[in-house]
Design a protein that fits this description.
Layout: H1 5-15, H2 23-32, E1 37-40, E2 44-49, E3 52-59, E4 84-86, E5 91-98, H3 102-107, E6 118-123, E7 131-135, H4 143-150, E8 154-155, H5 160-164, H6 168-174, H7 185-192, E9 197-201, E10 208-212, E11 219-223, E12 226-231
Helix pairs in contact: 6-7
Length: 242
């Protein structure tokens, strides 16, 4: 019996999670999410997944603005320059979701974002391989929080009717990850991704919102629900066909 002890310990370790998500919620999500269809809430960058050539990183924000991976010295590692932009509203299908159990983390390269949940997707108009990967937050505690975080980026409802109501120049700007004066607040998020901070203050013209993205490289000022000014810009790369 003793010769099986290391194997038993390894299997038990594989059931432990590196996140705060209970095992029963993890298993339920791993079974229920694959096969579901969603639509991108933001125009998203598609580019290298660090050193893993079998995958591609799908990100609404500028890929190097978040320290997903750091080296032993604590220096953030850049995933690589984005290669394309996938338009807002593009249909995607969940292939699988992979949570960072001890077993999964042990198999992942240490220079990949191994402590995050990985959502494997099929993206309409893009090859299935390399597999596009969407990363979720590490600190998710329940099935409801996972679904909420996933739906910050993926809408269960078709967004095309809403997108058709936007002016053509605004929709074009969104899909080029750039801003234009006067665009509605929701279009700013569609273009630049979800800001790290939102600060609010009243004014005679209406509520003032200051949106700030990671490292404060990019900022936007929104008054009365419309963009009035901004600082910084997002990388410009080719837009893929929807």
């Amino acid at each position: 019996m003793r010769r099986w002890a290391p194997l038993v310990l390894l299997l038990l370790a594989g059931c432990a999670s590196h996140s705060l998500l209970p095992d029963e919620d993890r298993i339920r999500l791993e079974r229920s999410l694959p096969g579901r269809t969603y639509y991108l809430r933001q125009a998203m960058y598609l580019g290298p997944f660090w050193s893993d050539e079998s995958k591609r990183f799908l990100s609404a924000n500028v890929p190097d603005e978040i320290p997903w991976v750091v080296n032993p010295a604590g220096v953030p590692l850049d995933p690589g320059e984005p290669e394309a932009i996938v338009p807002v509203g593009t249909r995607v299908r969940v292939v699988k979701i992979e949570f960072p159990t001890s077993f999964v983390v042990a198999r992942r390269d240490p220079f990949l974002p191994r402590f995050y949940p990985w959502v494997y997707l099929e993206v309409e108009g893009r090859p299935r391989n390399p597999a596009p990967i969407l990363l979720l937050r590490r600190e998710l505690r329940s099935q409801a929080e996972v679904v909420e975080d996933l739906e910050r980026y993926l809408s269960p409802d078709d967004l095309r009717p809403r997108l058709r109501s936007l002016p053509e120049e605004v929709l074009e700007a969104i899909n080029e990850k750039r801003l234009v004066e006067g665009m509605p607040a929701e279009a700013v998020e569609m273009a630049w991704g979800i800001p790290e901070q939102k600060r609010f203050s009243p004014s005679p013209e209406g509520r003032v919102e200051e949106w700030i993205w990671p490292f404060e490289r990019r900022r936007a000022r929104i008054v009365g629900g419309r963009l009035v000014s901004w600082v910084g810009e997002a990388p410009r790369v080719p837009v893929t066909a929807p």
